[in-house]
Amino acid sequence: MTRKQLVTTWFANIDGQNFKANKGLMAENHRFHNPLTPNPVGAEEHIGMMQMMTASFEGKHSINQAVKETGWVTVHGTWSGKHIGEFQGVPTTGNSVTFTWADFFKVIDGEVVNEYFEMNPMAIMEQLETVPS
Questions:
Q1: From residue 38, how far is each of 32, 33, 34, 35 by CA, in Å?
Q2: Which of 34, 81, 111, 127 could link 117 by a cystine bridge, Cβ 3.0 to 4.6 Å?
Q3: pTM assigned to the model
Q4: Could you report the per-residue pLDDT of 72-131, keeping only the tens digit for each?
Q5: What is the number of domains present in the chain?
Q6: In a domain, 20, yes or no
């Protein structure tokens, strides 16, 4: 599998809640860096975060662009879906949510060693605000 195929599969697995498949794509020393945690997390915590997000939101990742460079794949995409469960203390709203993201994967021997995920958490929270009737 090429690096670009790996990241396409990665996001399809998240959308399909196939976390076991993504665990199989992670290196033993996998580290996930993201704006929601102050420190990088390992594979188990990363899988837990994927599960939490898919329990809170139902939707799909769209890859707008993927660029491969010696051991790295940089991906820019859009996520669109619906808020279906409690998220960061916000009860289910049913609101539509869309946000853009960038992800940087360090891939060695077909495994994700490091992933640096960037997005604006406030872009999500603002869309969860409900207007009182």
A1: 11, 8, 8, 7
A2: 34
A3: 0.90
A4: 999 999 999 999 999 989 999 999 999 999 999 999 999 999 999 999 989 999 999 875
A5: 1
A6: yes
